[in-house]
Design goal:
Strands 2, 3, 4, 5, 8, 16 and 17 form a 7-stranded mixed beta sheet that branches. The protein has a 5-stranded antiparallel beta sheet with strand order 10-9-21-20-19, sandwiched between helices. The chain has 20 helices and 24 strands. By secondary structure, it is an alpha+beta fold.
Length: 642
C-alpha cells in the first residue's frame, strides 16, 4: 500500500473513531449528567396534572322538574400541520359540520396558529359523524355547560354561573360550594399527538358530583306568575314589578316573579341591574298595605273594637305641624271601615292612641326591620326607625306606610302571619338537598320565629280584610265563590333630585290571601311607577285575582263556581306542566328549540336527558311511541337538523 493511500485510510479511521468517541461521550453525558433534567422534561411532556371538578348538581322544582342542569357539550378542533385529508374526506367533514370544504381549508391555511376550533358545542350526531372519519389532525374536547331549560323562568331566583362554573348570583351563588362537587387531582397521559388520555376513560370518573337542590318553587305556578305579572306591568304601564306567592302554613315560597327578567343562559346580554333579586334586595315604602299591622296591634291591645267609630275630619287632619289627607273625604268611619276605605286619618288616630311603643313593638313582632333569613344572597334588613325617635307626625305617617322601608318578602311573610293564625314563619325556598347517592343532607321546613299576634286577633283582622275586598278598595281582587282577604297600597316615591315625594311616581300594591277561612296561598303584587292604572286597587289587585284563580286548583282549593276568567289563560294552557298524555303517543320534538322541547315534555310529566346544544336533532323514544307517565326522554341537540 502506498504511503498516500495509507494516510487516507488512517485519516478515515481517525475521523470514524473521533465520531464514535463523540457519540459515546454524549451518551455518557445524557445518561449520567443530564438524565434527571431529561427525565423531568419527558415526564412533563407525557404527563399532566389536572384538577377536575365533579359535575355540578341540578336545581329542581318541587315536582323534580329541572330548572338548572349540566349538559354535555363537544367541540371540534384542528391542527393544520397534521391535517392532510383527501378531497372526499374534506367533503365529508364539511357535511358533518355544515361548513364548505373551501372554508375549512381557508381556516387551516390562514389562521397561522398551531391549533384552531372548527366548531364549538356540536350535536352528538355531528360529533359521531366526525369521529367516524378518523381524520389526522382533528381533535375533540368534551366538556359540560350550565343550562337553564326554561330560559328566563325564575332567573333572579336561580341566578347563573360564570365561564369557570362558579355561581355568581341567586341560588347558584348561595349554594355554590355544595353544587360544585368535589375537586380531585388527576394525572393524565399524553399520546404522541399530545392528546390527553384520562384514567378509566373518563375525566370525571373520580370526581364526586355536586349536590342537588330541590326547591319549594312550582314551575307551573312560577310560569303563571310571570305571565300575569307581565300582563299587569304592560296594562299599568309600569317600569317594573314583582309577584311573590307563599304558603302561609309553612313559609314555603311557591313563586317569585319579577319584571324585567334576563336569560341566565346568556346573562351578558342583560345589564347587571337585571340580575339582582329585587324581592329581597330592594326597599320601598309599603303605603296602605302597612295599615293591617297597626290595626292588629290596636285590636290586640283591647283599646279598639271593629265597631268603634272614629272622626276622620272630612278628609283633612292636622297633626304634628303637618296636614294628613284622605283620598276620599269622609267624616265618621268605624274601625272596620278605616281599613275598608283605607283612611290615612283613621289609622293615624288609631296609632296616636296606641302610642309609639305599642306600634313599634307590633312592627318588630311582624318581622319588619330585620332580615327574614331566607336562603337568598343580598337580603336587606329593611328600615324601621327606633320608636323612641318618633315624633307625632312620624308615628302618624308610619301607620299608613310612609317613613319605613320594607322588602317584598318581608311584607308577604307578615301577611302570612295574619293568614295562619298569628305565627311569624321564616320563609324558605330550598325544600331539601340531596347528595350524589340520593341521601338527604338537608331538609327545609316550617321554622316558627314567634307569635306576632294572638290567633283570635289574626282571625278578626282577616275578616276585616275580607271587607276590603268585598266592598272596599280591593274589590277588583274578588274571585267568585272564594273568600279573599287583602289590602291595597299606593305609596309615593321619593324623587332623588329633590329629596321630596314625587308628585307623579308611585309604587302600587295588593297583598292578600285565599281562601280566607283556610288560607293556602298568600300573594303580594307590587308594581313600580305605573303610568296608566295608578292605584293598588286598579293596577295590582286584578293581577292578584288572575294568578290566585289559576293557583288555587293546584293547591287543592278549586273555586266554586268557576272564576270570571279562565283558570288557565291560553298562553298558560299551551305550556303548563302536568297535562294529560298526548294523543298518538310521544310527540315529535325534532326541530324544536331546547326551551320549547323541554316545556313540551314537561306538559306531559316527562323529564328530558339533554345532550348537545341548539335544536332537537334526535329523540329517544321516537315520535309516536308509548311511554309511561313520568318517564324520561333522551334529546340530542345540534345547530341544525341532521
Amino acid at each position: 500500500m502506498s504511503v498516500p493511500r495509507r494516510r487516507r485510510v488512517l485519516l478515515v479511521v481517525a475521523v470514524f473513531l473521533g465520531f464514535v468517541g463523540a457519540v459515546a461521550l454524549r451518551a455518557v453525558e445524557l445518561a449520567w449528567v443530564e438524565s434527571r433534567s431529561l427525565s423531568t422534561m419527558a415526564a412533563r411532556q407525557q404527563r399532566e396534572r389536572l384538577t377536575v371538578l365533579g359535575e355540578r348538581g341540578s336545581i329542581l322544582d318541587r315536582e323534580q322538574r329541572p330548572l338548572a342542569m349540566t349538559v354535555r357539550s363537544a367541540s371540534i378542533g384542528l391542527r393544520p400541520s397534521r391535517f392532510q385529508p383527501t378531497d372526499e374526506e374534506l367533503a365529508s367533514l364539511g357535511r358533518a359540520l355544515r361548513l364548505s370544504p373551501e372554508e375549512i381549508l381557508r381556516k387551516a391555511r390562514e389562521s397561522g396558529r398551531p391549533f384552531l376550533w372548527l366548531a364549538r358545542n356540536v350535536s352528538p350526531a355531528q360529533e359521531e359523524a366526525v369521529r367516524a372519519l378518523g381524520l389526522e389532525g382533528i381533535e375533540f374536547e368534551v366538556s359540560t355547560r350550565r343550562f337553564y331549560p326554561h330560559g328566563d323562568l325564575g332567573a333572579q331566583l336561580l341566578g347563573f354561573v360564570g365561564v369557570d362554573g362558579q355561581g355568581l348570583s341567586g341560588l347558584e351563588l348561595r349554594y355554590d360550594e355544595l353544587l360544585r362537587g368535589e375537586a380531585v387531582a388527576v394525572v393524565v397521559e399524553r399520546d404522541a399527538r399530545g392528546r390527553r388520555i384520562f384514567p378509566h376513560g373518563s375525566r370525571r370518573s373520580r370526581a364526586r358530583p355536586g349536590h342537588t337542590l330541590l326547591l319549594t318553587i312550582d314551575a307551573s305556578l312560577q310560569h303563571a306568575a310571570e305571565v300575569e305579572l307581565d300582563r299587569g306591568v304592560e296594562e299599568a304601564g309600569a317600569r317594573a314589578g314583582m309577584l311573590l306567592a307563599l304558603d302561609p302554613r309553612s313559609g314555603a315560597i311557591l313563586a317569585l316573579a319579577q319584571v324585567p327578567r334576563f336569560n341566565p343562559n346568556r346573562p351578558n346580554l342583560a345589564s347587571p341591574d337585571a340580575w339582582r333579586n329585587r324581592a329581597v334586595t330592594d326597599l320601598f315604602e309599603p303605603g296602605s298595605t302597612f295599615k293591617p299591622f297597626v290595626a292588629a296591634a290596636a285590636l290586640e291591645s283591647g283599646l279598639f273594637g271593629p265597631g268603634d267609630v272614629l272622626d276622620c275630619e272630612g278628609g283633612r287632619y292636622f297633626v304634628g305641624g303637618r296636614w294628613i289627607r284622605d283620598h276620599e273625604p269622609r267624616s265618621r268611619l268605624t274601625f272596620a271601615q278605616v281599613l275598608q276605605y283605607s283612611s290615612n286619618i283613621g289609622i293615624a288616630k288609631i296609632a296616636g292612641r296606641l302610642g309609639k311603643e305599642r306600634v313599634g313593638d307590633a312592627l318588630r313582632r311582624f318581622g319588619f326591620g330585620r332580615r327574614t333569613g331566607v336562603e337568598l344572597p343580598g337580603e336587606a334588613p329593611g328600615l324601621v326607625p327606633p320608636a323612641r325617635s318618633w315624633r307625632p307626625i312620624r308615628l302618624a305617617t308610619i301607620a299608613f306606610g310612609q317613613g319605613v322601608a320594607v322588602t317584598a318578602l318581608q311584607l308577604v311573610r307578615a301577611y302570612a302571619a295574619l293568614a295562619n293564625g298569628g305565627i311569624l314563619l321564616r320563609p324558605y325556598v330550598v325544600d331539601r338537598i340531596v347528595d350524589a347517592e340520593g341521601g338527604v343532607v338537608f331538609r327545609g321546613g316550617p321554622l316558627p320565629e314567634g307569635r306576632a299576634i294572638s290567633e283570635g286577633t289574626a282571625r278578626l283582622v282577616s275578616v276585616l280584610l275580607e271587607g276590603v275586598v268585598e266592598g272596599g278598595t280591593g274589590h277588583l281582587a274578588r274571585i267568585p265563590g272564594v273568600r279573599v282577604a287583602g289590602k291595597t297600597g299606593t305609596a309615593q316615591v321619593v324623587d332623588p333630585a329633590t329629596k321630596t315625594y314625587s308628585a307623579s311616581d308611585r309604587i302600587v300594591s295588593f297583598v292578600g290571601f285565599a281562601p280566607a277561612e283556610n288560607p293556602k296561598i298568600v300573594v303580594a303584587v307590587i308594581l313600580d311607577r305605573p303610568r296608566r292604572a295608578r292605584y293598588g286597587g286598579t293596577a295590582a289587585a286584578p293581577v292578584f285575582r288572575r294568578f290566585v284563580s289559576y293557583a288555587l286548583p293546584f293547591l287543592g282549593a278549586d273555586p266554586e263556581p268557576p272564576p270570571v276568567e279562565p283558570l288557565a289563560p291560553r298562553e298558560l294552557r299551551r305550556v303548563s306542566f302536568g297535562e294529560a298524555r298526548p294523543k298518538g303517543g310521544m310527540p315529535n320534538l325534532v326541530g324544536l328549540s331546547m326551551r320549547d322541547a323541554v316545556r313540551q315534555l314537561a306538559r306531559f310529566g316527562l323529564s328530558p336527558v339533554i345532550e348537545g346544544w341548539g335544536v332537537v336533532v334526535a329523540q329517544d323514544p321516537p315520535p309516536g311511541s308509548d311511554l309511561p307517565f313520568g318517564g324520561t326522554v333522551r334529546l340530542q341537540f345540534g345547530s341544525q337538523l341532521d
